[in-house]
Amino acid sequence: MKRKLFSVICLVIISAACTITISAQAKTDEKKTSAGKPLLAVQESLYMWKRAKKWTLEYVDAVPENAVNFKPTPEVRSFAEQMLHLAFWNYGICEPLAGKPSPYGTKQETIEKRDDLKNKAALRKFVEESYDYVLAAIDKLDDAKLAEQISFFGRKVTRQLVLTIALDHQTHHRGQTTLYLRLKGVTPPPEPQS
Q1: Residue 135: burial class (beta carbons within 10 Å; 0-12, 13-18, 19+)
Q2: Residue (of 168, 182, 184, 94) closest to 133 by Cα position
Q3: Residues 70-83: pLDDT tens digits?
Q4: Burial zone of 97 (CB within 10 Å; 0-12 exposed, 13-18 middle, 19+ buried)
Q5: How far is C-alpha 80 from the geometric centre of its chain's CA atoms?
Q6: Contact in structure between 84 and 111 (CB atoms under 8 Å)
Q7: What are the angstrom distances between the C-alpha of 10 and each of 3, 16, 23?
Q8: pLDDT, tens digit, for every residue of 17-38?
Q9: Which CATH architecture has domain 42-183?
Q10: Is 65 in contact with 119 (CB distance < 8 Å)?
């Protein structure tokens, strides 16, 4: 009998906790949509880009200072050049979403060759600012705007597809640097849990 009573009490406590959590989430969701802006796709995009930013910055933080300019072979980009390329195209690909031109123009080679960006502190700042540029652009959108078609490299695509292309691009280049870290004896940062 005591065991049954204990089980019932546990069930009541768990149910109460779930009800409170669901009620709090509903109030949060109401705030997000009370401005007349449906935000599901926007919120998902913000989540993915914040996660990508965190993970990429963890990679920059993990590389030893003396390996920032490391190249596995002479023909490929250095770690810094990979990250500068990634950041340059965060700006470039998301330019139509931001509604303003990239502050770094259209020549990626110019950025990749800048020696002043090839130390950890400057590299981290440049990469972080590129993610902030994307996040600010997303934050100005709503789901209807994400679904609208825009001109992108001569094609008509949705803003959501532009974000997907940009997310894929940065993932690709961050992934390439996994090898760079391992060759320098560094375990790459694990995938963020949130």
Answers
A1: middle
A2: 94
A3: 999 999 999 999 99
A4: buried
A5: 18
A6: yes
A7: 11, 10, 20
A8: 444 444 444 444 443 444 555 4
A9: Up-down Bundle (1.20)
A10: yes
Residue 155: strand pairing partners: 152
Cβ(89)–Cβ(108) under 8 Å?
A: yes
Token reading at 128: 């972080």
Structure tokens at 179: 């090898």
Q: Is residue 178 classed exposed, middle or buried when 0-12, 13-18 and 19+ CB atoms within 10 A define those classes?
A: middle
Q: Which residue did the predictor score with more confidence, 193 or 61?
A: 61
What three-state secondary structure class fits 157? Answer: strand
Q: Are 52 and 128 in contact (CB under 8 A)?
A: no
Q: What is the mean pLDDT of residues 57-84?
A: 97
Q: Where are the alpha helices (DSSP H) in 34-107?
A: 40-62, 79-98
Q: How far, CA to CA in Å, does 164 sit from each of 46, 94, 128, 177, 192?
A: 12, 10, 19, 20, 19
Name the token pair of 58.
Answer: 């963890």
Tell me the C-alpha distance between 36 and 194, whole Å.
27
Question: Which pair of structure tokens corresponds to residue 102?
Answer: 């990239």
**Residue bearing tokens 């009490």:** 9
Residues forming a β-bridge with 152: 155
Distance in angstroms (rounded) separating the CA atoms of residues 71 and 73: 5
